[in-house]
Amino acid sequence: LPASMYTEIQRDRPDGGNILTHPDYIDGNPDLIKPKKLLNPVKASKSHQELHRELLMNHKRGLGMESKPELQRVLEHRRRDLLIKQKKEEEEAKKLQSPFEKELLKRHQRLDQLEKEQEKQEDHAPEFIKVKENLRRTSTVTGDEKAA
Protein backbone atom coordinates (compact mmCIF):
# COMPACT_ATOMS: atom_id res chain seq x y z
CA LEU A 1 0.00 0.00 0.00
CA PRO A 2 2.68 2.63 0.85
CA ALA A 3 4.34 2.10 -2.53
CA SER A 4 1.07 2.74 -4.32
CA MET A 5 0.60 6.00 -2.36
CA TYR A 6 4.03 7.15 -3.50
CA THR A 7 3.23 6.44 -7.14
CA GLU A 8 -0.08 8.33 -6.84
CA ILE A 9 1.72 11.36 -5.37
CA GLN A 10 4.27 11.26 -8.18
CA ARG A 11 1.51 11.18 -10.82
CA ASP A 12 -0.39 14.10 -9.26
CA ARG A 13 2.62 16.45 -9.40
CA PRO A 14 2.46 18.88 -12.27
CA ASP A 15 6.14 19.93 -11.99
CA GLY A 16 7.59 16.59 -13.08
CA GLY A 17 8.45 15.21 -9.63
CA ASN A 18 10.59 17.96 -8.20
CA ILE A 19 10.89 16.87 -4.56
CA LEU A 20 12.38 20.13 -3.29
CA THR A 21 9.37 22.30 -4.13
CA HIS A 22 6.58 19.94 -3.01
CA PRO A 23 7.49 17.66 -0.09
CA ASP A 24 5.36 14.56 0.58
CA TYR A 25 4.06 15.68 3.99
CA ILE A 26 2.17 18.77 2.73
CA ASP A 27 -0.86 16.84 1.48
CA GLY A 28 -2.05 16.21 5.08
CA ASN A 29 -2.18 12.43 4.86
CA PRO A 30 -2.34 11.18 8.50
CA ASP A 31 -0.61 7.89 7.60
CA LEU A 32 2.63 9.66 6.71
CA ILE A 33 5.16 10.49 9.42
CA LYS A 34 6.03 14.15 9.32
CA PRO A 35 9.77 14.87 9.68
CA LYS A 36 10.98 16.96 12.59
CA LYS A 37 13.57 19.63 12.19
CA LEU A 38 16.94 18.43 13.51
CA LEU A 39 18.59 20.36 16.33
CA ASN A 40 21.96 21.90 15.63
CA PRO A 41 24.28 20.37 18.28
CA VAL A 42 26.48 23.47 18.30
CA LYS A 43 23.59 25.84 19.00
CA ALA A 44 22.10 23.41 21.54
CA SER A 45 25.33 23.28 23.56
CA LYS A 46 25.37 25.18 26.82
CA SER A 47 28.74 26.84 26.15
CA HIS A 48 27.52 28.21 22.81
CA GLN A 49 24.39 29.62 24.42
CA GLU A 50 26.42 31.27 27.19
CA LEU A 51 28.84 32.76 24.69
CA HIS A 52 25.98 34.07 22.56
CA ARG A 53 24.31 35.56 25.65
CA GLU A 54 27.59 37.25 26.64
CA LEU A 55 28.06 38.68 23.14
CA LEU A 56 24.53 40.08 23.14
CA MET A 57 25.03 41.67 26.57
CA ASN A 58 28.33 43.23 25.50
CA HIS A 59 26.68 44.57 22.36
CA LYS A 60 23.85 46.11 24.37
CA ARG A 61 26.31 47.70 26.79
CA GLY A 62 28.30 49.10 23.90
CA LEU A 63 31.49 47.24 24.72
CA GLY A 64 33.71 46.64 21.74
CA MET A 65 34.66 43.25 20.46
CA GLU A 66 38.29 43.94 21.39
CA SER A 67 37.50 43.77 25.11
CA LYS A 68 38.17 40.32 26.51
CA PRO A 69 35.78 38.18 28.53
CA GLU A 70 36.35 38.04 32.27
CA LEU A 71 37.53 34.43 32.26
CA GLN A 72 40.18 35.13 29.63
CA ARG A 73 41.40 38.19 31.55
CA VAL A 74 41.70 36.16 34.77
CA LEU A 75 43.58 33.34 33.03
CA GLU A 76 46.03 35.78 31.42
CA HIS A 77 46.56 37.48 34.78
CA ARG A 78 47.33 34.11 36.40
CA ARG A 79 49.76 33.20 33.61
CA ARG A 80 51.52 36.55 33.97
CA ASP A 81 51.77 36.11 37.76
CA LEU A 82 53.14 32.59 37.31
CA LEU A 83 55.84 33.82 34.91
CA ILE A 84 56.84 36.62 37.29
CA LYS A 85 57.00 34.14 40.15
CA GLN A 86 59.19 31.76 38.14
CA LYS A 87 61.59 34.58 37.21
CA LYS A 88 61.87 35.63 40.87
CA GLU A 89 62.62 32.03 41.89
CA GLU A 90 65.34 31.79 39.22
CA GLU A 91 66.91 35.04 40.40
CA GLU A 92 66.82 33.84 44.02
CA ALA A 93 68.43 30.55 42.97
CA LYS A 94 71.21 32.50 41.26
CA LYS A 95 71.72 34.63 44.38
CA LEU A 96 71.85 31.54 46.60
CA GLN A 97 74.68 29.94 44.62
CA SER A 98 77.66 29.17 46.79
CA PRO A 99 80.99 30.89 46.07
CA PHE A 100 82.33 27.56 44.83
CA GLU A 101 79.56 27.27 42.23
CA LYS A 102 80.15 30.86 41.13
CA GLU A 103 83.86 30.18 40.66
CA LEU A 104 83.11 27.04 38.64
CA LEU A 105 80.75 29.02 36.43
CA LYS A 106 83.41 31.70 35.84
CA ARG A 107 86.02 29.07 34.91
CA HIS A 108 83.59 27.34 32.58
CA GLN A 109 82.87 30.65 30.84
CA ARG A 110 86.61 31.36 30.51
CA LEU A 111 87.20 27.92 28.98
CA ASP A 112 84.40 28.45 26.50
CA GLN A 113 85.86 31.81 25.56
CA LEU A 114 89.33 30.30 25.08
CA GLU A 115 87.90 27.53 22.88
CA LYS A 116 86.13 30.11 20.72
CA GLU A 117 89.37 32.08 20.34
CA GLN A 118 91.25 28.93 19.32
CA GLU A 119 88.61 28.11 16.73
CA LYS A 120 88.93 31.62 15.32
CA GLN A 121 92.71 31.28 15.12
CA GLU A 122 92.38 27.92 13.39
CA ASP A 123 90.00 29.43 10.88
CA HIS A 124 92.55 32.11 9.99
CA ALA A 125 95.45 29.67 9.63
CA PRO A 126 96.55 28.85 6.06
CA GLU A 127 95.14 25.66 4.62
CA PHE A 128 98.49 23.91 4.15
CA ILE A 129 99.03 24.03 7.94
CA LYS A 130 95.64 22.41 8.55
CA VAL A 131 96.38 19.68 6.02
CA LYS A 132 99.82 19.09 7.58
CA GLU A 133 98.25 18.66 11.05
CA ASN A 134 95.75 16.17 9.64
CA LEU A 135 98.58 14.22 8.00
CA ARG A 136 100.50 14.05 11.28
CA ARG A 137 97.41 12.69 13.03
CA THR A 138 96.81 10.01 10.41
CA SER A 139 100.50 9.00 10.33
CA THR A 140 100.61 8.58 14.13
CA VAL A 141 97.40 6.57 14.11
CA THR A 142 98.65 4.19 11.40
CA GLY A 143 102.03 3.88 13.16
CA ASP A 144 100.33 2.94 16.43
CA GLU A 145 98.23 0.33 14.63
CA LYS A 146 101.33 -1.27 13.12
CA ALA A 147 103.03 -1.50 16.53
CA ALA A 148 99.99 -3.20 18.08
How confident is the prediction overall: mean pLDDT? 77
Order of helices and strands: HHHHHH
Instruction: Decide which structural class fits the backbone.
Output: mainly alpha
Q: In percent, how much strand structure appears in the residues?
A: under 5%
Distance between the termini: 102 Å
Largest sheet data? none
Low-confidence stretches: none
Radius of gyration: 41 Å
Helix percent band: over 70%
- Counting DSSP E segments of at least 2 residues, the number of strands comes to 0
The 3D shape can be described as: elongated
Tally of contiguous helical segments: 6
Describe the structure.
This protein has a domain at 67-125. The chain has six helices and no strands. The mean pLDDT is 77. The chain is mostly helical. 70% of the residues lie in helices and 0% in strands. The longest helix has 26 residues, at 70-95. The chain is elongated, with a radius of gyration of 41 Å. It is found in: Cell junction, Focal adhesion; Cell membrane; Cell projection; Cytoplasm, Cytoskeleton, Stress fiber. It comes from Vidua chalybeata (Village indigobird). Residues 1-20, 109-148 are annotated as: Disordered. This is Actin-associated protein FAM107A.
